[in-house]
Each structure stands twice: as C-alpha cells, then as structure tokens.
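Protein: Leucine-rich repeat
Species: Macleaya cordata
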Amino acid sequence: MGSCNSKNGDSSADRVARWRSTGIVALRDCKLKMLRDEVLELETSIRTLDLTNNRIVGIPMEIDKLIKMQRMVLVDNLIERLPVSLGKLQSLKVLTLDGNQLTSLPDELGLLIRLEQLSITRNLLSCLPETIGCLRNVKELTGCSSFKDLEEPKEELKKTE
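Structure follows.
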C-alpha cells in the first residue's frame, strides 16, 4: 500500500499518487522518526494512516490538515504527547495508540465526535481527560481498565446509550 522506500521500483511521486488514489497511507515498520511532510501535503485525500512499529516521538500540530481521516493507527512508536490539533479531526472514527510513551491525552480528544474506537493499551497514562465523557459514539474503549478515576467517564458514556 504505502511502502517505506522504493524497494519495488516506486518513485516518491508514484507512492504519493497511490496514497492519493487509495486514501490509505501504510508506513508500517519503516523506522520513521517523524511523520513525512509528503503525507501531510495530501490533506483531504487520506482516510487511513497506519504508522505502526516506527520510532515516531511526536505527531506534528499540522495533523489537523488531514480532515477526512477516519482511521489513525500509531501502534508501537515512542509518542510522548499528542497535539491539541488532534481534536480537529472530526471524521476520525478509529484511534489506536497502543504501545507508546503517552503520559496524558489532550482534553481536545473529547472533540472527536465521530470516534467509535479508542485503544490506549501499553502507555504510561495514569488518568484520562474529563472530556472523554463527551465521546458519545465510542463503542470500544480499550486500555482503560486500570484507571481508578475512570468510573465517572464510564457512567457518562453509559448515559448516552
């Protein structure tokens, strides 16, 4: 889908054209330390972004350019914080953050009104933002069983059913 380099003869232009036509950017296992600029330049073309198993430490504020993105998979990276601009991704339905170094989540997470699945296992989180209760469409929330202070947001999510 979106190979790391040109192993199969793809030029950068070919790769970007494929990402644009499919809406899928899959850069798994690419040893990336940061999100490539060429990905952000695709703006409204991206529906799925998979950066699993890289060495990414941070997500740029400009991630909010990807306004039509529905699925973002950032599993097994080194991400310590998420930008507040994440809250502008109003089309996002699936957010998978397992296996990072997150110590907190931005309050703006509660702005993701279409979010249906949130997975945050294997991070360094000790609490969740209160705004998690605003996620009315969440059907699957994994990685939260160890939070003592999650009872109130759980109750808030139940009220919406």
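Remarks: The beta strands are 24-26, 48-50, 71-73, 94-96, 117-119, 140-142.
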